[in-house]
Amino acid sequence: HVLSDLDGHVDVILDGGPTAIGVESTVLDLTIDPPLVLRPGGVTLEALRACVPTVERFSAPLAMDDETARPASPGMLSKHYSPRAPVLLFSGPFEAVTQHMRQVIAERRRAGQRVGLLVPGDQRDLFQDFDTPLADLGRDLDGMAHGLFAGMRALDAQEVDVILARLVDSSGLGATINDRLLRAAEGRVIEVE
Prior knowledge:
Layout: H1 2-6, E1 27-29, E2 36-39, H2 45-51, E3 56-57, E4 87-91, H3 94-110, E5 115-119, E6 134-136, H4 141-157, E7 162-166, H5 173-184, E8 190-191
Parallel strand pairs: 2-3, 4-7, 4-8, 5-6, 5-7
Antiparallel strand pairs: 1-2
């Protein structure tokens, strides 16, 4: 995807192949006390705390929504890592979210919209009766982190009108995945009970 983003804008692109992690690097500010994670990435907060026990995470990662803002690190604006299609992001109990997503798919399709799904592979069967474009994120957090951006790009390539996704468990690499999903959804989450 780097080539498609930068082709014609830079003179040279060195292609090292697919990354092992998929999400960008963790950005840590060590110039302050306590040290602060400005952008979560492949190195989790838990792993950092094993080396630097006092490290904290930036508490308002989606607060910067002004395009003229000068964030301390790339990827701190509320809209970043976004596909062309808007992302509807859901949170809540698994069964309730699944039901709500199914309702939204049906409603959007009745309205003539092409709906894309960005879900873990073990959830694809929950939506198979809709015959809708689906990006399989893998079955674990490593797979999800690795496939997240490729999944968004694949759904954009299929020209969907909207992408549906759900937040994942926020432990470990899940915090990074949720950070990227929240930015793709511009910080908006549909809470389901």
